[in-house]
Amino acid sequence: MRSDTSNRRGRFIASAAAALLLVGGITSIGLGLHAEPSAPQGNSPASAQTPVTSAPPVPASASASPVPTALNPAPAPAPDAALPASVPVSVVVASVGISSTLLQLGKQPDGEVETPPGDPGSPAGWYKDSPSPGQSGSAIILGHVNSTKSPVGVFYRLRQIVPGQDITVTRSDHTAAVFTVDTVRTYHKSSFPTVEVYQNADRPEIRLITCGGYDPASGQYLDNTVVFAHLVSSHPA
Fewer CB within 10 A of the end CB, N or C, for the chain? Predict the structure, then answer.
C-alpha cells in the first residue's frame, strides 16, 4: 500500500499535468489525415471512420450504432490500487484488434499536444505531461484513425469499443495496467469539452482519443472520439 504522502504527491503531479493541458489552450485533437480512398476488406467495422480524401467515402452500414451507450461506471478502486509512475510502452484492446507500441508525445510550439506520425504503421502515443497509465489521474493516449497512405490507422477501430471491454497498457516497470471502458463519446471539434476530457480524475483513468465525423464536403474530420476507462487491476507483464 502506498503512503499518504506518496498518494498526495501523485495527485499533485497529476493535477499539475492537467493544468498544463488547460493552459495550453487545447480544444481538440487533429488526428485525421489524407489517405487513399480504398477501404479494407473482411471484418472492418461499418461504423469506423472514412479516410480523409477527395474521393467519396466508403458508405457506412446502418447496423452499427454511432456511439455505444454507456453503462453505469464500476466503483472506483481502493486508493492503494493506484500504481506508481512508469512510462507506458504498449496498449492493447484485444476485443477490437487494437495493439500498438507507444511513443512519448510532448507539446508543439503553439502549446497544443503533439500528435503521432501519420505514416502507415505508425503507433499511438502517450502524452507525457499527463499521468502515466495506472497513476491516479487521467492518462491520455492519442492515435490516428487513418494514415497518409491508407484508410486504416492505429485507432481505426476505436469506435467499435463498447463499455465493459478491457484496455491493457504495459508499462516500463513490467506491470500491465488493466482498465475497463466506462463510455465512448463523440465531440464536435468546435465544441470539444477540454475540461471534461482532460481534467484529472480522483482515481486512475485513461482516455483513448482519435478523429471521427468525416465530412465529404470539406474532406475533413469534424469530431473527436474519446474512450473513457478506469483501472480495475494490474499484474506482472
Answer: N
Q: What is the pTM (predicted TM-score) of this model?
A: 0.72
Kindly report, residue by residue over 194-234, the tens digit of the pLDDT. 888 988 899 999 999 999 888 888 878 899 999 999 999 99
pLDDT score of 56 more than 80: no
User: What are the sequence ranges of the domains in the chain?
Assistant: 4-236
Q: Would you say the C-alpha torsion 111, 82, 87, 177 has a positive or negative sign?
A: negative
Q: Which helix (H) or strand (E) holds 23?
A: helix 4-23
Instruction: Choose among 67, 46, 34, 47: nearest CA to 153.
Output: 34
User: Which CATH number is correct for 4-236, 3.30.70.360, 1.20.1600.10, 3.40.630.30, 2.40.260.10?
Assistant: 2.40.260.10
Q: Is the pLDDT confidence value at 48 over 80?
A: no
By the 10 Å C-beta count (0-12 exposed, 13-18 middle, 19+ buried), 212 is classed as buried
Task: Give Cα separations from 88 to 150, 153, 175, 195 (angstroms).
Answer: 26, 20, 9, 23
Report the number of secondary-structure helices (H) and strands (E) in the chain. Answer: 2, 8
